[in-house]
């Protein structure tokens, strides 16, 4: 198994351990050993967008310095592809990395500020796990599937930070296919959704704007259902929280609303590759197990 | 045809400051409105995304009081569609920062229900406090 | 120049220059210069955290931090005391908390504002990895926070320096309390002793002590047996 540096991000260790656990299982199925970055820190979840603010790029760059250290210490062997599963962490880490690559002066200032660390040499590539799978090849991934999810209709929800902005996103921001290819590789049937990359309301889930999130959840989940989907998959823990947990508020506002399981793509992969014990199906708000049992993918 | 925007000197300072902070060439916007039609938040905003840009173009600091600049969640939909290559999410960030940098927060963390704080995933709190607090 | 004058150094206390003998701690140097500690001094042995000091060395730009009782005064030093930091504290009843991954953020949501600048770690006179334990607190890892923060003496320097306005030591204290009560393994020797107390093993000795007057208590205290252990030796349970 090839070893890759791995950045989990806070939520995979905290509120979404079912994402973290199934991520490690999915990587194993793809013949990859994830080596967690020692002493990694929170990336900041959102990228700092003002030109004069360097402070908020320190956190992402400090993590990339740790990847350098991993190589020096032999935790990974000359491997600078950093694998990330969380869409938001991926976006933030990649944007800061690209910014310092384009702006050596900025890199110098950040390096000088981080006087307790070695200088960042800008050698790390920030990679989303879906890109890793695509590079391995969907045919090869398909061969690892022990339990094809035949007949299961899944709507891919890409969200924002996996696709945008251009140059950071992993697929065409207007017509993405990577998650649909993933669904096919798992033996399931991708269902199109016009709102697959509509913002779920993001951090407005904190504070008094929850209704705004509930409205978008209503839109996105309903569109998936109208197109015949039985569940939604995503790779963003904030989208997952909004589309899954906030179905409670959605149902309160729209009593006729029919709830639908929203789970992480890695949970699907763990199930399809015969590691359902590591899929963490008890971690989601809307339970997907009755549906998966109905299809015969889970016992009991 | 070249359109000319005439801005009073004192208003020009606000435009230039916002251009510098956002790193965006705001006067390039020709008000086509694609940002407004693409934005998933338009229906909940007090002024449209295109109006945000227009107000900055004419140097109207009143835009800082709009709720629209706080509703922009940096989804980058307008960014990928703008025919002039303007990143409006960087502009709204520059506008929010002009308030936050005076140590004025948009939300009071202490007013959030305890139980809710406990339930929210780290990713929600980290991103909200980055965007809403100074 | 006399021998004595040669051994004098200059320290700037709150901006005013004072000549003090070389080799003193910052605390002693301040007392030599005529300052009397009403706050900002406690155990004088590096344990209580009362004597937080901010200083800068001549020719440097860095603001450094230290405990006044543990750090030698240096020639050309600029310094001031920080006897109290008005850090955010929360009221809670440990017995009523059900610890979960979001508990620390529930009481101290500002932990999620950490920008990983590492200033707290650099300011810690105990050389703790303060930033690392704040990161662990975002993830709700009580064990990691407890272990990383165990030697914290609550001087408050990290709080004073933090750009995200986090109250590091109060977060860590809550984490340690919850870890101690709910998660760490129960120490068997403590349970045994508690059973002994409940069974009345010490009742007689305690009531005897209670019957003594002040002079008798003093005598007992002076004559008490102190267990002698050699350096490096571990005391039996």
The number of helical elements of chain C comes to 11
Q: What is the first-to-last residue Cα distance of chain C?
A: 59 Å
Distance between the termini of chain B: 42 Å
Strand content of chain B: under 5%
Class derived from helix and strand content of chain C: alpha+beta
Unreliable residue runs of chain C: none
Write down the CATH class of the largest domain in chain B. Answer: Mainly Alpha
CATH fold-level assignment of the largest domain in chain B: Fumarate Reductase Iron-sulfur Protein, Chain B, domain 2
**Helix-strand pattern of chain B, N to C?**
HHHHHHHH
Q: What is the count of distinct domains of chain B?
A: 2
Account of the 3D structure:
The complex is a heterotrimer of chains A (300), B (134) and C (237). Chain A has 300 residues and is α/β, with parallel strands linked by helices. Chain A has helices at 10-13, 17-29, 55-72, 87-102, 104-113, 129-136, 138-143, 178-185, 210-226, 237-245, 247-253, 265-272, 289-294; strands spanning 2-7, 32-36, 81-84, 125-128, 153-156, 189-191, 231-234, 262-264. Chain A folds into two domains: 2-130, Glutathione S-transferase Yfyf (Class Pi), Chain A, domain 2 (Up-down Bundle); 147-294, Rossmann fold (3-Layer(aba) Sandwich), CATH 3.40.50. The longest helix of chain A is centred in the first third of the chain and has 18 residues, at 55-72. The model of chain A has no long low-confidence stretch (mean pLDDT 97). With 134 residues, chain B is an all-alpha fold. Chain B has two domains: 9-102, Alpha-helical ferredoxin (Fumarate Reductase Iron-sulfur Protein, Chain B, domain 2); 106-134, no CATH class. Chain B is built from eight helices and no strands. In chain B, helix 1 crosses helix 6 (88-100). The longest helix of chain B has 14 residues, at 9-22. Chain C folds into two domains: 3-81, Beta-grasp domain (Ubiquitin-like (UB roll), Roll); 94-183, Orthogonal Bundle (Fumarate Reductase Iron-sulfur Protein, Chain B, domain 2). Chain C has eleven helices and five strands. In chain C, helix 5 runs antiparallel to helix 6 and helix 5 (130-138) packs across helix 8 (168-183). Chain C is flat, with a radius of gyration of 23 Å. Chains in contact: A-B, A-C, B-C.
């Amino acid at each position: 198994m090839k070893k890759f540096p791995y950045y989990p991000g806070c939520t995979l260790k905290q509120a979404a351990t079912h994402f973290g656990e199934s991520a490690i299982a999915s990587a194993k199925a793809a013949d990859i050993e994830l080596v967690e970055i020692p002493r990694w820190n929170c990336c900041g979840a959102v990228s700092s967008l003002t030109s004069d603010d360097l402070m908020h790029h320190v956190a992402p760059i400090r993590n990339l310095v740790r990847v350098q250290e991993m190589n020096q210490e032999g935790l990974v062997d000359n491997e600078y592809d950093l694998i990330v599963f969380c869409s938001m962490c991926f976006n933030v880490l990649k944007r800061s990395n690209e910014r310092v690559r384009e702006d050596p002066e900025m890199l110098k200032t950040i390096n000088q500020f981080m006087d307790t660390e070695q200088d960042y040499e800008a050698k790390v590539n920030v990679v989303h796990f879906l890109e890793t799978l695509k590079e391995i090849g969907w045919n090869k991934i398909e061969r690892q599937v022990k339990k094809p999810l035949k007949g299961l209709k899944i709507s891919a929800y890409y969200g924002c930070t996996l696709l945008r902005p251009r140059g950071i996103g992993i697929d065409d921001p207007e017509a993405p296919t990577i998650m649909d290819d993933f669904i096919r590789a798992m033996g399931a049937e991708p269902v199109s959704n016009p709102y697959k990359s509509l913002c779920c309301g993001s951090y407005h889930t904190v504070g008094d704007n929850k209704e705004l999130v509930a409205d978008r959840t209503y839109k996105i989940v309903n569109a998936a259902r109208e197109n015949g989907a039985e569940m939604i998959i995503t790779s963003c823990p904030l989208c997952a929280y909004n589309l899954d947990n906030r179905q409670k508020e959605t149902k309160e506002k729209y009593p006729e609303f029919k709830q639908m399981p929203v789970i992480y793509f890695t949970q699907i992969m763990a199930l399809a590759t015969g590691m359902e014990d590591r899929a963490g199906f008890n971690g989601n708000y809307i339970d997907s197990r009755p549906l998966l049992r109905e299809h015969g993918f889970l016992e009991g | 045809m070249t359109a000319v925007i005439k801005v009073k000197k004192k208003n020009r300072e606000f435009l230039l400051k916002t251009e510098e902070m956002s790193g965006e060439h705001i006067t390039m916007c020709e008000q086509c409105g694609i940002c407004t039609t693409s934005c998933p938040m338009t229906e909940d905003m007090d002024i449209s995304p295109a109006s945000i840009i227009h107000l900055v173009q004419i140097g109207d600091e009143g835009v800082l009081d709009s709720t629209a600049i706080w509703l922009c969640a940096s989804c980058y939909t307008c960014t990928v569609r703008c025919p002039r290559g303007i990143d409006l999410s960087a502009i709204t960030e520059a506008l929010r920062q002009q308030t936050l940098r005076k140590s004025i927060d948009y939300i009071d963390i202490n007013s959030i229900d305890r139980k809710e704080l406990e339930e929210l995933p780290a990713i929600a709190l980290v991103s909200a406090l980055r965007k809403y607090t100074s | 120049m006399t021998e004595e004058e040669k051994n004098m150094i200059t320290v700037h206390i709150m901006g005013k220059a004072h000549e003090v003998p070389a080799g003193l701690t910052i605390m002693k140097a301040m007392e030599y210069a005529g300052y009397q500690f009403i706050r900002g001094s406690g155990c004088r042995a590096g344990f209580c955290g009362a004597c937080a000091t901010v200083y800068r060395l001549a020719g440097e730009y860095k603001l450094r931090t230290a405990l006044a009782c543990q750090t030698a005064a240096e020639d050309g030093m600029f310094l001031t005391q920080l006897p109290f930091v008005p850090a955010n504290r929360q009221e809670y009843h440990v017995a009523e908390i059900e610890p979960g991954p979001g508990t620390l953020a529930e009481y101290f949501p500002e932990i999620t504002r950490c920008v990983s600048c590492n200033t707290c770690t650099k300011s810690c006179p105990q050389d703790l990895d303060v930033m690392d334990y704040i990161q662990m607190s975002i993830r709700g890892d009580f064990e990691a926070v407890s272990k990383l923060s165990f030697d914290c003496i609550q001087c408050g320097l990290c709080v004073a320096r933090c750009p995200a306005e986090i109250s590091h030591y109060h977060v860590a204290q809550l984490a340690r309390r919850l870890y101690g009560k709910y998660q760490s393994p129960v120490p068997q020797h403590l349970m045994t002793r508690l059973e002994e107390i409940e069974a009345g093993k010490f009742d007689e000795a305690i009531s005897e002590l209670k019957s003594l007057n002040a002079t008798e208590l003093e005598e007992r205290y002076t004559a008490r047996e102190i267990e002698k252990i050699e350096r490096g030796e571990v005391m039996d349970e």
